[in-house]
Amino acid sequence: MNQNELAVYYGLPKEVKFCKKCVMSNQRPTSTIEFRHTKDSKKTTMNFDGGGVCDACRTSETKEKINWAQREKELIQLLDKYRSKDGSYDCLVPGSGGKDSAFQSHVLKYKYGMHPLTVTWPPILYTDYGYKNFKNWIDSGFDNISFNRNGKTMKLLTKLSIENLFHPFQTFILGQKNLAPKIACKYGIPLIFYGENEAEYGNPIADNSSSLRDKSYYSYNNLDEIYLGGVSIRELKEKYNVPLNDLLSFLPADSKELERSNIQVHYLGYYLKWTPQEVYYYAVENTGFKARPFRTQGTYSKYNSIDDNMDDLHYYTTFIKFGIGRATYDASQEIRNKHLTRDDGKALVKKFDGEFPDRYFKEIMEYLEINPDHFCNELTDKFRSPHLWKEEDGGWRLRHSVWC
Predict the structure, then answer these.
(1) What does 101-129 look like in DSSP terms, one character per residue?
(2) What is the residue-wise DSSP string for 377-404?
(3) Which residues pair with 94 in a beta bridge?
(4) Domains and CATH numbers, the chain
(5) CA-wise closest residue to 402 among 339, 319, 291
(6) How many CA atoms lie less than 13 Å away from 36 in the CB half-sphere?
(7) Taking the mean position of all CA atoms in its chain, how far away is CA 192?
(8) Which of 49, 51, 153, 223 maximizes the CB count within 10 A of its CB?
(9) Are strands 264-267 and 209-211 parallel, antiparallel or unpaired?
(10) Average predicted confidence (pLDDT) for the chain
């Protein structure tokens, strides 16, 4: 069958292209947070310039031209404006105690004299290593609010996200996104700090800061338009008997409350040159962060996203839907940071991308009450886009790969 005749899912580009500098393809969706779920509405894919270079690589090139000393002065001016005189919380750092949130909070408190409150939307299923890192983070000198959401609802929404969207983290991401503004409003905290700017990964390049004017935060006032796990709020209430109260933690704060708050969101990576390996070493030295003694399935690293048993499965689903696994993400970032060559990255992608995450798979399926065969056969094959995959010799293989 001609490539042009093959069906294309998720609004992805029909023609598969790979960045000439890293190993990322144009099949990577740039928006990972969606309230709506319609098959033909996701037209948010990674942009390539005329030379075949992705947004993230072009952003990386601009970082080399930035005057970082001047950027740090801008940070200090911002912090001087909001630093509390009485020791009350003056900034909020969301995170789980991974290397990034550990670095952010420690630098803000111990280098720049801020008074951060840390806030955690916990992993769906904590790994032993992730929970130890979380405890070490708090024990290194931070107050923390850890929001323990309704376990029954979280389980249902995660299951629906897998069955309807093949996205284990969809509702987790929504809750994680919406928790920080709610806590900041409640405590009157004027600043929220995240780590790397989204542009680092090829997401739409935005300003380094914003007040909470993102229209997704206003969706609470339009409940009929909100879908969680691919299911409308109305259907969740009527078909699944989930009262609205049990869904509130996943929904945005009230828009009027956000407008009054004038909370600003900033990315520390805009002001300080952000290198993941250096962030990792800083977190190890200052907050007791520890990598796992074994690599993450689907990639070659040992310290990225190790707090949730669901994480490996999530990147397996991105491999099935978009042909992009965890090794592609990791290698692309390290190529941009000049820690790998593109040939190194291609070899690592060939070796590790799409590795089945069997380490925690049985535990996850039991927790969600999903039949493992149903996941591995029916669901997995259902979400393969025909323009990316072909069945050959009794198995599936990608039609296009960066290493060929």
Answers:
(1) HHHHHHIIIIIT---EEEEE---SSB-HH
(2) IIIHHHT--TTTEEEETTEEEES--TT-
(3) 119
(4) 3-63+309-398 (no CATH), 68-271 (3.40.50)
(5) 319
(6) 12
(7) 17
(8) 153
(9) antiparallel
(10) 89
For residue 382 the two structure tokens come to 């259902």
- The answer to whether the CB of 337 falls within 8 A of the CB of 38 is no
d(CA 226, CA 239): 16
Rounded to 5°, the CA angle 232-206-212 comes to: 55
Angle, helix 276-287 to helix 99-106, in steps of 10 degrees: 70
Structure tokens of 80? 């001087």
Question: pTM value?
Answer: 0.89
Q: What is the C-alpha to C-alpha distance for residues 160 and 164, in angstroms, rounded to an integer? A: 6
What letters, b where the CB count within 10 A reaches 16 and e where it falls short, cover 360-377? bbeebbebbebeeeebee
Long-range contacts of 221-225 (CB under 8 A, 24+ apart): 221/254, 221/255, 223/251, 225/35, 225/36
Distance CA 122, CA 119 (A): 9
Give the number of other Cβ atoms within 10 Å of residue 358's Cβ: 12
Helix (H) or strand (E) holding 350: helix 342-352
For the stretch 318-366, pLDDT in tens is 999 999 999 999 999 999 999 999 999 999 999 999 999 999 999 999 9
What CA–CA distances, in Å, run from 352 to 21, 135, 148, 355?
20, 31, 34, 6
Is beta strand 116-120 parallel, antiparallel or unpaired with respect to 91-94?
A: parallel
d(CA 181, CA 187): 10
Instruction: Indicate the residue type of 69.
Output: A
Does 214 score more than 80 pLDDT?
no
Model confidence pLDDT, tens digit, residues 375-385: 999 999 999 99
Give per-residue pLDDT as tens, 243-272: 999 999 998 887 777 778 889 999 999 999
Please state, in angstroms and rounded to a whole number, the distance separating the CA atoms of residues 232 and 302: 38
Helix ranges, 119-275 (H): 128-139, 151-165, 170-187, 233-238, 255-261, 268-271
